[in-house]
Amino acid sequence: MSGPAPALHIPANYGLRLPESWWNLDLDPSTRDGSIRRRIMAEVGEDIPADAREGLDSLIRAARRSAREAHARGALQFAGMFDLMEDGSVLLGNVMVLRFDLPEGAPADLTELMLAYAVRGARNPMGKGTRARQSEIIELPHAGPAGRATSVEDIDFYGRGRARLAIMQTIVPVPGTGSILVVVGTTPNLTLVDPFFDMFDAIASTLTFDV
User: Fold this and answer.
1) What is the pTM of this model?
2) Would you kindly state where each structural domain of the chain is located, as residue ranges?
């Protein structure tokens, strides 16, 4: 996992820096399946061992499912990384950016928002005693106060099966608006929660607004 690359701007008045090895998944329903496969195959090359092809096909399917889910949720951006290990296992991490409009006249009260996350987290037995069960208010270097919630959850991919993911959410009020931006980092590699959370934190810490 390398350091952040130059900022990539997506229409929504924000900028986010991604590690150099990460890429943005195509969310357009008319092109995403083909472009995702081409991107992954370009990374690993066509000449891969036969015993690794099953893991690669699973990775492509997972990336496509993730892109479909991100599009269905109205994501502004979906970025990810993967590494196919020698034993055929996959190292996988994703970051999705969502924007939500608050009810008219409702303030973006981080204390109230994070209380709701804390209550929800207290009811979730997974991740107890680890970094994957926290709720707090933090300060982002370029975007100011933000909420931070972490968890381990079983996610249903729209009836295509469930996956257990470690999740970090960074909730940021958009200046001068009644909206919040949520930077969601996820990984299924639960034995590597700490390094992935460090990476997700580093990415969220590059968030800037142009409003």
Assistant:
1) 0.78
2) 22-86, 102-211
